[in-house]
Design a protein that fits this description.
This protein is α+β, with helices and mostly antiparallel strands. 31% of the residues lie in helices and 27% in strands. Bound molecules: adenosine-5'-triphosphate.
Length: 462
Amino acid sequence: MEKTMDKIVALAKSRGFVHPGSEIYGGLANTWDFGILGVELKNNIKQAWWQKFVKESPTNVGVDCAILMNPQTWVASGHLGSFSDPLMDCKECHERFRADKIIEDYVQEKGIRLESAVDGWTQEQMKNFIEENQIPCPSCGKHNFTDIRQFNLMFKTFQGVTEDAKNTVYLRPETAQGIFVNFKNVQRTSRKKIPFGICQVGKSFRNEITPGNFIFRVREFEQMEMEFFCEPDTDLEWFAYWKKYCIDWLKSLGMKEEEMRVRDHDKEELSFYSKATTDVEFLFPFGWGELWGIADRTDYDLTQHQNVSGQDLTYFDDQKNQKYIPYVIEPSVGVERLFLAFLCGAYDEEEIGEGDVRTVLHFHPALAPVKIGVLPLSKKLNEGAEKVFNQLSRKYNCEFDDRGNIGKRYRRQDEIGTPFCITYDFDSETDGCVTVRFRDSMEQERVAIADLDAYFADKFTF
Ligand code: ATP
C-alpha cells in the first residue's frame, strides 16, 4: 500500500476533515476549514495535550491570552526586528523563494557540509553562495535571481478608526509572549514556586512565503505552547525531562517510533540565546518535517521584557534567599501539524480477503472523531437503537447510522476511524444485548446494554 498525500487529502476532503477555505469563491490560497470530523479530531488533540500538560501535571497551569498585544511586546521578543525571511524572486519564471531554503535543499542534495547554519548567515553570504554555486531555480531550472530582501512574517493591522503607524498592531506570530507578559500575574495568583509551567493553546499567524504541503505550513494555525520556568543551572535537566515527556505523549497516542525522529540542533544551528534545542520530526509522505520544537531559552525572554517594559520580572526564592530571572524551557507544537501527522500515521489500506481492500484510519481511541457508531440492523429496530445512542452520546461523540447494508456501514466507520460499532439486532429486543465490533481486529463481542457504560469506561483513556 502506498500512502500518498493525494489519497490522504482526498479522504480528508470527502469525509469532512478538512475543506479548502472560502471554497465557493474559488478559495483563498492556503487557508483551510476544519469540517465535521476535523473539528472533533482537532479538539481531541488539544484536549489530550491539556490533559497531560495542565490537568495531570502538578507543576503546570494554563492561560488564554489575547491575540492582539501591545506592539512593545514584539520589540522585546525580537519579532519586529528580526522575525523575517530572506526573500528572492526568479527573474525568469517569477516564482518567489526563501534564499535560505534554496541553499539548504541544495547542500542536502549535494551532500555538502556547511561550517555554520544558513539561518545565521547574512544576506550577502547567501547571495554569494547562490552565485558561486550557480544554484538553479527549483521551479524553472534557470539561474537568474533578484537580490535578497528581508520580509517580516507578522501580519499587520490597525486598532481603532485611523489607519496610521501609531495604531498599528500585529497578529501574534506565537502564543508564547502572552505567557511571558503574564508571568507575574500567574505566579501571584497561582502561588506557584519555581519550577512551574504556564501553558496556552491558541491561534498564531505568520505570513509565510512558502506555505504548503496541505495543512503542514499554513498562515493561520494553532499552537500549544508551554513555558516552564526553572532555576538557572537546572535548565538542562528540565530540558531533558520535557523532551522525554513530549515524546512519551506522542507515543501514548499511538505515534509509531519508526515515524518519529529526534534531531538535536548542533552548536552552529542554535539561536544565540539557546543552550539546547531539539526538533521532534515526523515522517510525512513528503518526507521528514518538524513537528515539535523544544528549546532551552535561558533567561532571554523575561530579561528582554524586563528591559523593555521597565517592570521587575525577577523571582524571589525564599528558601535560598535569592533573586533571579528564571530560565525557560519551551516545547512548542502546532495543532495542524499534529493533526496531519496523526492522520497520516493512522491511514491504512488493508487486504481483507478475496481481493477486498478496506480503507481504515487506525486512530488512537482518544483521538478518534467518532467514538462509537450505533447501527440498527433494520430500520424497524430504530427505537431500541436510539435508546442506546441516547445513553452513550451523553458521554461520547456517537454517530447513528441506519442507512445501507451493515457491511457498508462498517466500512464507512472504518474509513473515519471509529474504534467501536454497536449493532442493535432483532435479538437485542429480547436478550437486551448488542454486538460490539472492533475497528482494528474486526472481531465482535456480545455485551449487555445495561453494561455498556462500564464496558466503555476505560476504552478512551491514554
Ligand atoms: P519551521 O522551521 O517549520 O518554519 P519554526 O521553527 O519557525 O518552524 P517554531 O517557531 O519553532 O517553528 O514554531 C513551533 C511549532 O509551531 C512548529 O514546530 C510547528 O509545529 C508549528 N508551526 C510553526 N509555523 C507553522 C506554520 N506556518 N504552520 C503550521 N504550524 C506551524
